Structures are given as C-alpha cells and as structure tokens.
Amino acid sequence: MKTLRLLMALTLGGALALGATWHLNGERWPAHAEATTAGAAGERTPLYYRDPSGAPLWSAGPKTDERGRDYLPVYDDDQMALQPAKPKQQAASSRRILYYRNPMGLPDTSPVPKKDPMGMDYVPVYEGDDADDGTVKLSPGKIQRTGVKSEPVERRSIRVAVKAPGTIQLDERRVSVIAMRAESFVQKVADVTTGSRVKAGQPLMEIYSSAVTSAAAEYLATITSRTVGGLELYGRGSRQRLVNLDVPESVIAEMEKTRTAPVSVRWSAPRDGIVLERNAIEGMRANPGDVLFRIADTSVVWALVDIAERDLGNIAVDQAVAVRARSFSGRTFTGKIAVVYPQVNRDTRTVRVRIELSNPDAALLPDMYVDADIDTADSAPVLAVPDSSVLDTGTRQAVLVDKGEGRFEPREVKLGRRGGGYIEIREGLANGEAVVTSANFLIDAESNLKAALKGFAAAAPQASDSGHAMGEHK
C-alpha cells in the first residue's frame, strides 16, 4: 500500500512537470492549479513541497521562492494543501469610459473595445483622466516605472563660475630701462647677464661721457666758487643738468662730498628685479637712446585672460580670482580683477581682463599659460531649481509642478543666472512648490500624447456626423 502511494506521488510530480490538466465542474484546469485540502494539513506528513507558481521545481523541506511565497506541500494521498484562492477584483469602475486609445501610443482611438493588429487590447480612457485644467495625470505605477522625482523650490545662492584661459605678463609699471642720454662709451660691465637677479643700487657698468664730465666739472666749479652774487641759482642749474643726463643720484652726492669730478660714472640698478635684456658690451659706443639694460620687478605680475562675451555681465572689478598655472599642478594663486578692458575682440568675441597676482617666489614667468576661475557668487539667495527640471525649447522655458496624487502642471517660467547645477527662477514659481527633476521629458511626452489623442477623439464624432449627413442628403 505504501509503495502504491509513493508511485502515485511520483506520477503526480511527473504530471506537474509535464503540465497535465484535469477537469472540474466542466472547466479545464491545469494540474498545478490551486485546490482546497479535504483534511487538516497538520495531521499529515508532506511527501515534498512544490513551487507555488506551478514551475517544475520541488523541495524536500519547507522553502520560499524568490518572491517570498511559501512552497506548497504535497501529501501521500495525492492531495495538495494550497492557499485559498483570492477573489478576483473585478469591481466595475463607476467612471464612464470616454473612448479607447491605441496601446502603443499611436494616434488611433475607438469608441468601442477593440484589439490592435498585434492582438493587444485598446486602453480605456475614463472620464476625468483628461481634465481640462492643464494638468497631466499619471497612475502610481507609471510614476514608479518612469522614476519621476520631485524637489521643492528653495532660495539659494547661485554660484556662477567663469573659467577662462590666459597668460602671465609683466606689470608695465615695474619695468625699468637704462639708456644713455648723451654719447657715451662703456668702459666696464659688471658680472650681470640676462636672467640675473639684481638689487636696487647694485653696480651694472661704468660709463665715460664727455657731456657728463663737462657738466660735473661745471657743477663743482659753482659749489667751490667763493663768488657771492647768484651762486645759489647758478649752482642749482648746473646740478639740474646732471640730473637731465640721468646721472645716478648716488654719483652726484659723492661729487658734492669729495668735490671731485669723476672721469667715469658708475651706473647702478634702479630697482630690484630680473635682468630681461643686456646690450652693454665693454668698449662699445652707446648713442643717445640706446637701451643697455632692461630690468623688471616680478614680485607682482599680471594675468591677462579672455572672458567670453556672454559672461561679461557677471564680471566686475575687485572680484576674487583663483589662477592655476599649468606648470604647477595643485597650486593656486589668488588675486583680484584690476581692469576690464573696454573692447570686445571681433574675431573671438571675448573681452580681456587684467588680474593682479602676487608672485614673491617668481614662480609665475612671463608668457606662462594659466587658467582663471572667477567666483561670481552673489551673497543674496534667489529662487532656484535644478538644471534638470527645466524644459527649454529655445523660445520657451517651462517646468512641471507636482500637484500631488499623480497630477503635474506644466508652467512657463522666466530664467536668470545659471551655476552650480541650479537655475534662477525670476517669474513663474513660488517658494516651496515642488517641481519634477527626473523623467520630466517623459511626462511632457505623455502630455503631448494625451492632447493629440483628445484631438483625434473630438474629430472622430465630427467625421461620423458629417458622413451621416452626407448619407441623408443622398
């Protein structure tokens, strides 16, 4: 008897795997359909457990499937203890069906139920689903599937970071040139070359000039003369002549102290800096205006950057700027905007901006490439929404306001500044309103689809009435 029961259980398992069917009350049921147990399940020992969905899966002990449902026990008398079937929820909707739309979203509607060429049922559209208040209504399932997310509108500071490339240039006010103002001869040049650092007052060369020697002798004659009449006025004019010849002040002071006119004059550096140019050669003849040395102070340099014309309205003098040199990764030089040049480059549509930078260690060199990051953040908070929430067609900007219960209202807005992932809203929204930040394009497409379907549904009765009228006319 026990062998017979085991054989029947194995036969039942095979029937489950092969999808056998049986008949009950005139209806055809699959072999793995749900059934009620004749006796109490707790008084019998199950032979095995089967998958609750009817799949060919079995277990020797209690188990749950991947959806958390318990496996169903199979007993030795071929009876299966199953969960009671849930009543079908086919409560008829109290709302009136307006029309049926194509399940694939095509512009085709029907006043009665029908199927498309693929055998899919047309979707009913109920009264109230296409409200005329301008809102779009989505079911909770569609909202979850499309990943619709909303975020409240808040006031925040908009940070508009303007980035621009540029180059390092010398401060024009910190460059000195040593040139002779009279015909001279270079007698000796100090051990100074291009690129050398010099200090103010450091000797550079010795010059012999007949004009300088003559003026020095004349000045000494005036200050050593014992003549009283007009001495002061005449002596002052002689000293001015030496100054006009660009004789260093230290040389004039030495002459007044020693009462001796030098044969050659020692020229020294007028400022601290770097020798950018050295043209002086021992024994050479220097004509008036010839540049013998050019020295620049590099403790402060300029960064000349080109700002796009569209960002010009966000730039102002004294704004803080962070400059990064491509030669020094990770290092940032800070400065301020000193000048915004009053001209737009007609070819590049950019405006040049001058930024003054401190350069104490001379790391920034002339013509070095840099990248400027200008922080134009405004301390006053403004109404702002995320970038992703704005639907911009170029001529019209709108957002989708979340009205709750699956209703979304398209609303036109006026935008302001952009920066930091947010856009300023100047008109159209109030503080605290929720706007859609994700899947807003899908909602917009749904809105356009519903509008099109509504237009086709309205046109269908008109076409039908027109055809009927033509038939009566005939």
From TrEMBL:
InterPro entries: Beta-barrel_RND_2 (IPR058792), BSH_CusB (IPR058790), CzcB_C (IPR058649), MFP_Cation_Efflux (IPR051909), RND_pump_MFP (IPR006143). Pfam families: Beta-barrel_RND_2, BSH_CusB, CzcB_C. GO terms for molecular function: transition metal ion binding; transmembrane transporter activity. Coiled coil: none annotated. One of its GO terms (cellular component) is outer membrane-bounded periplasmic space. Residues 383-443 form the CzcB-like C-terminal circularly permuted SH3-like domain. Residues 301-376 form the CusB-like beta-barrel domain. Keywords: Ion transport, Signal, Transport. Residues 175-296 form the CusB-like barrel-sandwich hybrid domain. Residues 131-150 are annotated as: Disordered. GO terms for biological process: copper ion export; plasma membrane copper ion transport. Belongs to the membrane fusion protein (MFP) (TC 8.A.1) family. This is Efflux RND transporter periplasmic adaptor subunit.
